[in-house]
Amino acid sequence: MGSFVLLHNNFYPKSANILMQNIKTLLEKLQIPFEKSQNITLEGKFLPFINRVEYYKKLFLLFLKAQEENHKILVCDSQSLLEIMRFFANFYEETELREVLLKECETEIDILSLENSFIFAPEVILNALKTYNFKRRWEGFKCAFFVDRELEKIVVESQMISTLEERTGLKILPFFKESYAYLLQTNPPLAYSMGATDYYEMVDGGVDFILTPNIGNFELMDRCAEKLRNTKGRDDLEIPLLFIPQVILALFDETTSSILHFGEHIISPKML
Hints:
Layout (H helix, E strand, L loop, with lengths): L3 E6 L3 H17 L4 E7 L11 H17 L3 E4 L2 H16 L1 H10 L6 H5 L2 E3 H8 L13 E7 L3 H6 L2 H9 L2 E7 L10 H16 L5 E3 L3 H9 L1 H8 L8 E2 L1 H6 L23
Parallel strand pairs: 1-2, 1-3, 3-4, 5-6, 5-7, 7-8
Helix pairs in contact: 1-10, 2-4, 9-11
């Protein structure tokens, strides 16, 4: 495989931009080569209301193109990872869907080769950190790690949390939960209510910030922060959300809040 092609969900473009600016900067610092970035609108919760073939065709074509160009897909957010996993599961299990996709894309690709052509970005980043000797800049900080429930096994087996703690000095409290960001499109009041319940559960656990690989979680809990506060009748709104690349980038001595794009957060982080 050659260099990476970055893939992220663009369902929430403003929140996605914060993640992608940071992850590109981090990959450059870690000398991890990437060719370009691609975005795709992914939200599997809406599949009952949209054309499944067209939805999966965009993802399938992206993988075919990357393989043709000898690139590996670096999946930058957890929602994209989940949708890719669902795509491959459906491709295997549903003969009709598989045959239609292969016909429309005019290919007879070996699906096993496609399954080996992507990797979750935090795994690559944390593996690269093994060759760096950072000051444990986050020593004494405690964060909630807000991760999609379906990824609990992957997070545990990859030892992602313990590796993050070891490399950063953070104390991490895992929260494996569903993301309710999709409700912003269909039932905003319910989205604010469910999001506020999860947000303040973590806040009341005494954390300094919330860490998430899910762009939807950031959209709901940062960009809609005031709605969440008002929904719960709270007067506190000080605990920010951060993406994993922001936490890693902060380990570099020359990193500033502007490099991390903290000014684009609604709940502005005060750590740097």
